[in-house]
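WARN retry 2 of 3 for item q-0093 after timeout on previous attempt; input resubmitted unchanged.
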Amino acid sequence: MALAAERAKYGLPVEFKVTREMKKTFTAQEKGMFKAAYETGGTKRANEVMRVYFAKKRAAIKAAKEAEEGGGASGVPGGSDASASGSAAGAQTGDPVPDDSGKTTRSIAAAAVVTKEVVKPKILTVIPLGETSESGQLLYAGTTDWDNLGKKTAESGSGLWSFHKMLVGVKIRLVASGCGSVHSVCVDEAGALYAWGRNDAGQLGVGDMNSRAAPVKVKGLDDHKIRHASCGKKNTLICTEAGLMFSWGTHKNGQLGHGGKASDGYMTPVQVPNWGADASPVTRVACGAEFCMAVNEEGSIAAWGHPQYGQLGNNANGEYIEKAGSISYHFELSPKPVRFVNLGKAKMVDVACGNNHSVAMSEDGTVFTWGFGGYGRLGHNNQKDLMSPQELVMFNFNHSKNDRLVANSIAAGATCSYVRTNGGQMYFFGRTKSTGEAVMYPKPVVTINGWNVKSFSCGNNSTIVAADSSVITWGPSPSYGELAYGDPATGAPKSCSQPKLVEDLQECGGSMVAAGWGMSMVIVPPSDAAKLVLAKLPEYKPTEVVLINTSPPAPTAAAKKRGGGATGGSGKKAKK
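OK item q-0093 returned
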């Protein structure tokens, strides 16, 4: 229980309660924090959040006072003198801070005024959220009509409206999907890869094009331990502990990265060549709808696939006139480094892909976006497409002089982006529904403020967050059960515009989450609380695991007019 641990860590009284008199002394920020916590978890949650907040604040005041007296010691566990000075900034305003009895006083804060020095944070060793998740039980909620999702024949009621257990008895340490994908993958403790969902292009890697209603092992990877994975619309990309890449599924837009010519692809894993002079090992992978990205140990990002909106970051959209009135594209058929201007020696550590845009993060927490700019998903307060990476200066320490605004994790939905900062705040930009106002630049998700976020992911429309000992979801209609609020037939909501707790997973939470199109997954690590919660959840047992594909076969590469060599292919212009 994260908040209980925080209470012990900072020596807070167990019977702490926010009183009416105390609320009168709150700052605007504190009022907002209390309100957001109350709306998501009621009075109990609000008291817990404010309890931890004031404990940290009191510790910062103590550290600042000791520093002023020449003690030079930090009052924040695990902190340094510089971090104590920065943490004391909240105390310099004279804000009220409760003492051990729960009373507030301004005199302590006023006495702690010190000269704040702007100290650039050390280069961060950023570990993207979910990279080192604790193994546990895999849970699934959402569509079970994989072959028809997004089509007129889809059955809106054909899904799991609450979380169900999958792969019971197998400890899962990583789960992944994609904002445009109707299939998912997971990795067990031994490094083996499983896949399930839609398989109309061989994206499950099982050697055929029949969908799977439950996870099955991917073929051809027995000699490899999987490190990271991602799913595209009709393809899958993984990297191994040894830094090798493999992909499978469709290659019609070059998204497999194998080089050669655009083709129908492969139904089992095929190795993707690493890039660079020494072919540095790959550490992270990401898939958009029809393009892919990867990061290597040198901090370089490479991209391949469909270039239509500049999402490959190579300063071009690949357009050429095939004939009068017809525009086609040169696909990138193998990994090509993304061009970062004025990056200096900073290394990239993570990348995320929406349907047609990209988000990257450097080791010092700077964020870059590029690609399709519609609905503000790039965060630059306009809707211009960007053919090369552009920095979001808000998260650059040299611009903000605030280390709490330095990014430590990123995610991308189909038409939106998320950034989480060192200060614990999540920021959103873009749009998750087809109607309504777009958010053109990063704005805080205030309801999540104060939560200890462990993992977050965004699918086609819906968002899922693992925070403290809870799981939180939200998203617009239509949904297919991925929000896991319960069966609508019993009165449970089908959609929610604001973050809402998943009641079934209260007190156990998750170590990692993932979202796809109409689906969401959670890994629940073992604990006494988790044991009680999991005992109440049903297990998903489909009557048939192999779902025979009755769709007509896709046309072969020879039947389509495609060209190109090792670095390019061609295709017709697609609609935005």
